[in-house]
Amino acid sequence: MSGARFAPRSGELATAHELADLLKRLRPVAATAVDPLEIAATLEADGINDTIAQRLGHPDVFSLAAYLFTKVGRAPVPAPVAGDPWRSRASHHLFRGALFGLPGLCYVAAAHALSGIRALAVVVLSLLLAWTASEFLAYVGYHWIGRRDRKNAARILQLGFAASVAVIVPVVLLAGWLTGAGSVGTGFAVGQAFYLLAATLALTMGAEKWLLGALLPLIAGSAHALLASAEPGAELWRTAAVSVALTTLVALIVTTTRRSSAGTLLTRTMIRTGLGQAAFGLVAGALLTFATLWAVAGPGGGAAVITVVALPLSLTMGIAELMLYRYRRYGFRQLNRSVDLAAFARGARQMFAVSMAGYLGVLALSAFGLSLLLSYTGTGSMNVWALATAVVLGGALFAGLVLRSFGDVRVMLFACAAALVAEGVLSAAGLGVEPVQLGVCALLCAGLVGRGVAVLGRASVHH
Q1: By Cβ atoms counted within 10 A, which residue in 42, 170, 346, 396 is the most buried?
Q2: In terms of residue numbers, what domain contains 418?
Q3: What count of other Cβ atoms lies within 10 Å of the Cβ of residue 405?
């Protein structure tokens, strides 16, 4: 310790005042020490040897250091927080959330035209395939952006888009032909696939404003159809086609680069991790569209709720993203400031509970508001089963989103897959699709929340 060395008072015995003076001078060192040995090193550097320690009533320097370590409470100086990677503007996430939710207007406006089971089957197939591919593309794109290599990100996204379209579009067209879904259902499914893939590229590359411009024709056409309470006609399909074409154009423009950086665009590790993300997209999509999948597979009803169960989640994706960033930022800042692991774990779990409660509240309000809109426009309805299922499934997927951001993918993916299998088995047993879906999704939500409480209390996962 810097400063004057320890100078004993005259006399043979150390006084209580001398020990108190030493304690006062070394308090800053003892308070920030992680071990008595650190204090012992400071004592020796300050000229206090075993002889002086014995005069102070301790057999050696190490005993004196242990006394100081015990006497002074722990009060480490928090490290400064620098380079917060989770700092973001709320308006940015809310804007992105609007982009996630606005295309839902088209689903509502087109509900009557897509009410046939064959058309819905092809639309769901398109949704699942495009959603799965989009999750993979988003992962590899953000991987390169996180490494500050936008050229490689743009290149892999454009190649992935081309490959996905080359596979998904022919499959959807073939499915439409085999099922007799008709030109409207098949065309909607193809356009949906193009839009989901292209929007993924635009959002990953940060072209939100351009994407909004591309969506304007679709928004105008859908709003007109809803306000006029008219059957979806040629005007809606034309505006939808224009928006899909513009979105695709935006995606190609923002991912066009002269050349990529040197090195491999796609490593084995990236492929393995990306496939895990894609599998989550597939399972999550299947959970959202289970009622329709069951109706297509055989017995059951409830196919008409495909859109309404998924819509509240689409409308609140921006809020979910904002809540995630706020939670990650809290963990990052507390990791740099906390000096007590137990207090950190308690705070991290409490913040997770607050985030879950906040998101579920917004989701419930959105689902209720959507049900009123559907009833007012006569384009559909959300009964109590659908409302409750949307909330608990949304809670499960939000908990899964948080876990996924910490790399805890396997358990979350296994839980979602098990829930999907359970829904199928119980529905086949004749228990009813709606109560089964609600019950299983509620258990899934509780399980993933419990997993979050167990995992997120560990300081190591917040690094």
Answers
A1: 396
A2: 277-463
A3: 14
One-letter amino acid at 411 equals V
Between 114 and 127, the more confident residue is: 127
Q: How far apart are CA 140 and CA 291, in angstroms?
A: 31
H-type alpha helices, 33-103: 36-45, 50-55, 61-71, 90-101
Digit-coded pLDDT (tens) for 326-353: 999 998 888 877 767 888 889 999 999 9
**Stretch 423-430: mean pLDDT, rounded?**
90
Q: Rounded to two decimals, what is the model's pTM?
A: 0.78
Domain identity same for 228 and 290:
no
The single-letter code of the amino acid at 27 is: R
Tokens at 239, concatenated:
């505006």
**Cα 300 to Cα 292: distance, rounded to the nearest angstrom:** 9
Residues 426 and 310 in one domain: yes
Percent of the chain with pLDDT over 70: 88
Q: 390-400: per-residue pLDDT in tens?
A: 999 999 999 99
At which residue do the structure tokens 């086609």 appear? 241
Q: Are 323 and 358 in contact (CB under 8 A)?
A: yes
- Residue 40 in contact with residue 88, Cβ under 8 Å? no
Q: Give the separation between CA 143 and CA 150, rounded to whole angstroms.
A: 10
Structure tokens, 144 = 């390169």
**Token pair of 345, please?**
């774990």
**Rounded Cα distance, 428 and 55, in Å:** 83
Are 284 and 258 in the same domain? no
Nearest Cα neighbor of 18 from 70, 51, 55 is 55
**Alpha-helical runs (H) found in 338-462:** 341-377, 384-405, 410-428, 433-456
Please tell me whether residues 203 and 254 are part of one structural domain.
Answer: yes
What pLDDT score was predicted for residue 86?
77
Q: How many CB atoms within 10 Å of residue 171? A: 14
